[in-house]
Every structure is written in C-alpha cells, then in structure tokens.
C-alpha cells in the first residue's frame, strides 16, 4: 500500500497500535458484521499492497462514528484508517454501485442524491427566504445541506428552521441553487480528491458572498466546515446551538405546551465528534409541559443510528437488528412518546425503525426544529 513513498502503515501511524481491541470493542456494528478495526490495522501492518483489501465488502459497513478513534489509548484513528482503505478501493474502482452513483451525482450536480442542482432551492416553496447569491444581504448564512434540500421528509426541517428564525428575528439567507454539498460524507466514502475539490470550490463561494457566520441543519455539515475546511474564515454553528442561544436570550419564546415524554438521540457527528451535548437537551427541557428523559446510552456513549459514513448509500453486510431498531425498542421500554433528533440521517433511520418495530402509533420521531416550530 504505497502512497507517495510512504507506506499505508506509516501514513496512519499504525506501528503504535498495541492490538488492545478497544476500537473493535466500542464499534457500533462489529457485533453483527465482519468489520473489525483491530484486525484491519493488523492486516495493514502485515501487508504493503492492496491485496489486503480484496473482497472486503464489509469495509463499507463502517459508519465513521469515530467511537474507535475516541477510545484508542495510543491516539491512532481507526476510522481514518478505514477511510484510507476506501480511498484505495476507489482508486481501483472497486466500490458498491450505489456509492459510485452518489459520488458521480455529487461531482455533476453538487449532491449525492441524484437530483438536479437547479432544484436545490425548491424546498422553500412559497416561503420568503433571502438569497445572498442574488444580492440579498444577511448577517447569517443558513446552509441547508443536501438531504434537507432534496429529501421530501427532511425538507420539513428546513421549513421549520425558517419559521423559527423568522419568529426570533434572525437576519438570515441561503445560497439558493448556488449551494453545493459540504463533502463530509464524500470524504468518508473515501473520495478524498473530490472532497478536496469541493473545499476549493466552496471556500471561494463563501468568500464571494461575504459569509462570516453560518448555521447548518446537519451535524455532518457542521463537522466538516468546522474541522476539515482548511483556510475557512467563517464561524459555524449547528442549529441547536443557535436555538439554545435564542431561547436563553428570550428572543425565541415557546408559547404552547406539549404534554409528552421526550427522549433524545445524540448524533455521532454532533455529540461524540464535536462535544455538543447540552444545547439540544436545554431546548427540549425548556418545552412547557414536556418531560425529558435520557437514553441509558447517551452523550459519549450514545448508540450510532448507522446513517453516517456513506451508509445512506450502501446497504450493510450484517444480519440482525439494526441499531436504530434497538433505539426504538429502548424508547418504547422507557415510555417515550417522542424520539427527538438533530440530524437528518438520524431522522430517516429512526423513523424507519419505529415503523419496522410496529411503534408508529405510540412513538413519533421528530427533529427538534419540527417540535419547536409548532410551539412558537
């Protein structure tokens, strides 16, 4: 596995691995698939060619939730090792067709969903939303993201945030059809070259329209803008951070009650990877009439929904119950009426799981933005 005269093992610091197994022990999917971070690291150490990756279909099972990386006592990043292995597979054009289609769509139309760029702003419908790419001025850029822009179910999140921002007097705008994919999932699928190209395109785009502050719908977008866009000069928040500030300052008032028991799913890219745990809970605990209860596995220990790392475009190889189904059963046992989420992927995976488990008449899966929009 030679890359620029540096072996794969050297590039990822694998000689420091002590094979303790904490990476695999903490993996959200290792119990039901052949994915084994410790074994992959060992195999990468023992081989300097791409043969080690042959027939490793389970390499696409990883959700890149980064639990393995957070638990490694030697500071190795197994999730990055897996991304690196995916990169090698992509160079050989050895990847699932659905992943390839998502990558091609992103290159062509700026989104992985196979939708036309010209339809990116159709989600807004009759809403009045400033478009900074057409000359409107705004203090804050609302970066909608690919899934809220195109997925019919998740468009409700974008519309809810518009309602909330308007109610709180937030001066915001979007890029309309000029908005393009952030690239977080693209990099995690292994297409590093395409990701770098997107960074090179997006940063000048944001500079052109004088973007100083940004708020995102998705934790995945937040993560890549905050941590992986070298040279970016804008400030970025997840919408739950902004909503918490608006509620605390009194600019956003909840005037209606909600007599429901609510629990909350920590998104991996918001919680584990960016340590944003308190703001979503503060919002939910401020709802008049509602009772908030936490999952047993919450915050740093939260169970990944299995939506990240390209898994929205690649079916896993494992058998048995998905993590989202496990969460649905846990919520039912807790007596929760609502599973609140703050991530488009969590919303899609958990809503499907609730239906599959037969709880659709007793448990709702709602994005925090949807809940708040109905209470103002």
Reconstruct the topology from this structure.
Blueprint: E1 2-3, E2 6-7, H1 8-11, H2 22-25, H3 37-46, H4 67-71, H5 78-91, H6 97-109, E3 130-131, E4 140-143, H7 146-150, H8 155-168, E5 172-174, H9 184-188, H10 192-208, E6 213-216, H11 219-227, E7 235-238, H12 239-249, E8 261-264, H13 278-285, E9 291-292, H14 323-334, E10 338-341, H15 344-357, E11 364-367, H16 368-373
Parallel strand pairs: 3-5, 4-5, 4-6, 6-7, 8-9, 8-10, 10-11
Antiparallel strand pairs: 1-2
Structure notes:
The protein has 3 domains: 2-91, Orthogonal Bundle (Fumarate Reductase Iron-sulfur Protein, Chain B, domain 2); 104-244, 3-Layer(aba) Sandwich (Rossmann fold), CATH 3.40.50; 253-373, 3-Layer(aba) Sandwich (Rossmann fold). Helix content is 40%, strand content 9%. It has 16 helices and 11 strands. It has a 5-stranded parallel beta sheet. A 4-stranded parallel beta sheet has the order 9-8-10-11, with helices on both faces. A two-stranded antiparallel ribbon has the order 1-2. A hairpin with a 2-residue loop joins strand 1 (2-3) and strand 2. Helix 3 (37-46) crosses helix 5 (78-91), helix 12 crosses helix 13 and helix 14 packs across helix 15 (344-357). It starts with a strand and ends with a helix.
